Amino acid sequence: MTKNLTPIIEANNKYSKEFDKGDLSAQPKKNLAILTCMDARFDPAKALGLEEGDAHVIRNAGGRVTDDAIRSLVVSHKLLGTIEWILIQHTDCGMQKISDETIAKLLEDDLETASFNGKSWSNNNAQSENSKPGSKEGHKINWYTFSSLKQSMTEDLKIIKSHSLIPSNIKIHGFIYEVSSGKLIKIEDYK
Amino acid sequence: MTKNLTPIIEANNKYSKEFDKGDLSAQPKKNLAILTCMDARFDPAKALGLEEGDAHVIRNAGGRVTDDAIRSLVVSHKLLGTIEWILIQHTDCGMQKISDETIAKLLEDDLETASFNGKSWSNNNAQSENSKPGSKEGHKINWYTFSSLKQSMTEDLKIIKSHSLIPSNIKIHGFIYEVSSGKLIKIEDYK
User: Fold this and answer.
1) N or C: which end of chain A has fewer CB atoms below 10 A?
2) Could you report the per-residue pLDDT of B79-132, keeping only the tens digit for each?
3) Do A86 and A164 belong together in one domain?
4) Cβ–Cβ pairs < 8 A, chains A and B
5) Closest to A53 (Cβ–Cβ): which among B41, B54, B166?
């Protein structure tokens, strides 16, 4: 049992003892799906007031509309009846502070966690004796980094709206989550 | 404003008014990442006792180790310092009740939500007059359906552990979430 697992198992014991939601349907009650970033600071259920059973929640690095996000969204609508989707990306996103090329270069050097000094990224050479060898495989990956939040939101909303497997009658909204304030801002109102 | 958006915006106004977590770091406090399903019934933060700032949460249809999940996990470790990952798939998963071939066939017919009668899937022909035309594109997609939960967990854990961009010193755990009880069950203990 690791330092992290012990409190998680304790919390889950408590949660399951008080659990009274065993008969919820797999179909989201609100016919709603959220696509957002994996960022630790954002708790979609708390920030949007959602309960267990209300909505699908899809999350990846950046909250980007990747092929896998499309797979999940199509499953969400076609098999489980969601008809309204909300895309939420956020301020201070790690994927906005780095380029695909830099990620690939950092991974080529070693696989240990790199450092960001507020301006640029570097590997921690002090760790190099113990560090795992790097890999060139990172050059083959689309990391979905972005330079403008409004632009990435606009492009991603466009991909969803024009996709051949997504019907045009699905309601699609875009919001930006401000990590400094906990506020959701409509993409049209974001400056 | 849709029926869903109104209460979400109200809940977010309340959340942001009481918000006192504006100085959290992008690096998860517990150096932890969770990979799990988008299922509406599962609230990872509540079920595992996690607070804002604690852990990355990556979610897709099935909680499968797709290429995009690997992208997110590598970003989580290499750029944001997570060193412990938990893979959580769950009972009664939609992805276990259908095959890749059936999803593709349903989509070829039309893009409207299909029905499951407890045994098999079918498109709702009654809706066909208004339904959007289907698409053959679904045949090109790996939908990541699975027939055995224990097998999908075992295979997915293996993909993570053997991946060239993932260092071997990351602690990796597998749990199954039981939607009927709210309980997390270690993969080794699941029957």
Assistant:
1) C
2) 999 999 999 999 999 999 999 999 999 999 999 999 999 899 999 865 555 556
3) yes
4) 280
5) B41
Instruction: Give ipTM to 2 decimals.
Output: 0.97
pTM of the model: 0.97
The answer to whether the CB atoms of A103 and B32 lie below 8 A apart is no
Question: Does residue A55 belong to any structural domain of this protein?
Answer: yes
The answer to whether residue B5 sits within a structural domain is no
Chain segment A72-127, per-residue pLDDT in tens: 999 999 999 999 999 999 999 999 999 999 999 999 999 999 999 989 999 986 55
- Note whether A36 and A64 are same-domain residues: yes
- CA of A66: which chain B residue's CA is closest? B68
Overall number of domains in chain B: 2
Q: Is residue B10 part of a domain?
A: no
* Six token digits for residue B149: 């939960």
- The whole-angstrom distance between residue B158's C-alpha and the CA centroid of its chain comes to 18
Paired with B55 in beta bridges are B32
* B23 belongs to a structural domain: no
